[in-house]
What we know:
The protein contains 26 helices and seven strands. The N and C termini lie far apart (95 Å). It is mainly alpha-helical. The strands form two sheets. Strands 4-3-5-7-6 form a five-stranded mixed sheet. A two-stranded antiparallel ribbon has the order 1-2. 67% of the residues lie in helices and 5% in strands. InterPro entries: Arnt_C, LipidA_mod_glycosyltrf_83, RgtA/B/C-like. Pfam families: Arnt_C, PMT_2.
Amino acid sequence: MTQTKQIPLNFLGRLQQQGHWLLYFVLALVWLGTLGFRHLIPSDEGRYAEIAREMLVSGNWLVPKYNDYLYFEKPPLHLWMTALAFKLFGLGEWQARLWSGLTSLFGIFFFSYTARKVWGARVGQCTAMILASSPLWILGGHFNSLDMGMAFFMGATLCSLLLAWEAPQGTKSQQYWMLLCWASMALAVLSKGLIGVVLPGAVLIVYSVTSWDWKCWTQMLWIKGLGLFFLLCAPWFILISIEHPAFLHFFFIHEHFERFTTNEHARVAPWHFFITLICVGLIPWLWQLIMANVQILTFRFKLPLNSPSSKTLWLCFIWFVVILGFFSASHSKLPGYIIPVIPALAMMIAISIDHGFTLASTKSKLFPVAWLWQVSLFLLIFLVGLTQISLIENSGETYEAESYLAYAKAIRLALIIGVIGCILSLSFYKRKMLSLGIYSATFLFVTLTAGLSHEHVGRLLSGIEIAQQVKPLLKPSTPLYSVETLEHTLPFYLEHPSIMVNFEDELAFGIGQEPKKWISRTADWMQEWQANPHQDAFAILTQPKYHELTQQAFPMQLIAQDHLRVIVRKPLASQ
């Protein structure tokens, strides 16, 4: 009798475990399968795709170049991985976003694994659901920029440290996790710069002071760790500095110190910018986010940090506070900067949902009520949103009317998915994990539907239409001028860098290093354009500049145009 009961229980346990793997597999298919649904948009997506393309074509993987100008603003790891994706799979949108997609997806798996090992299986599952449904993490994972790779390696730094603390003292397992922590910091530096090591160091200092836990410094494997750190990240910095001595001042002083302390980069935002962004980026879990922080502070000041689990939780909180404070104090603010706090917040929220720092019996009674209120609130928000679609339909300029009408239809579909998902989640509210899973899947599909449907508007921004018209006519040796403008996506789609004319912008450093590669005055370009009537040439113009040159009867042949830019060709003498 005992055996007949044991077999079904084992079978159900294995089925449940396999079901988790199946969900992860479906998540991977959805996550990676939607990377190519949009064309690249300015500026980050086009810029980093073009730098990687030029790296692949030139064969120079040491020196990043943008439009054939030296580009030292960022380290090369993201560019290397994107160039590798182009080499393996060809040029394309999903290939350009593959590194962001892989790091964000693997981040969900690794951070969930960490939470499971440190705080238990349900916390691990909740962490995965929170990350997979957080709009900031979803959109960051489907956007070609350096931020997601940086966020993943910084998150891996935190999680490796947590796992090293969790491992038995002095074991090989602890050493491996600690070395992975150092390796992750090195790769974070190669992804975005010094913040990859400065911020984790600041976090550990603040953690030690606030917890009076100095023993953690003795577990860092300083000799092996620093050796591994410099072995991974130092060679590129050394080699690029030898070949281009100007790199050191530009990268470390201009791109780090001056970016943080001055408004030179014109990315100013109010001090609460990142607080607002976190609330929006984690909006499905906003109530749990607030409660988690309140509970952690209450727990910290009422009880001593006398257990490994409480210390690791406090480290996650300090990680969040230090990074938020650092970027909030900076004079340069962009949305992607704050993504590294999302993994720590996801684990904090997951712990709050599962444990709540209260008695389990009390929590089990409180959860259904709070969950009913939260899901009902978002159900109401989605229903109200359906009545406000006309605001999107009437957005944009006149030439964008059709695009915004199509975009409004996609937003309507996203809101309908939200309504259906919330209703399903409410219907299973007594089954905690199932209700959470439905709710998480709902926001994943709502965010993907709304975000990827931006293609209706983004297609025009990408310039793909005119690029397709011009590319067959443009030979590799033909000059392509960019007159008083910098197009971030056209060079990638044309597979051809452009020569800057009377416009520097972010290429100022590269132009300063190689001034002969650009034309400082539009009048000089006009003379060069007309100097050799037998040399073919193309130029990218803004609409106002094109009309100005037309009024001057400047010799040029219209090849393609849209509402944002124009591409012209020099009339040849034989024509």
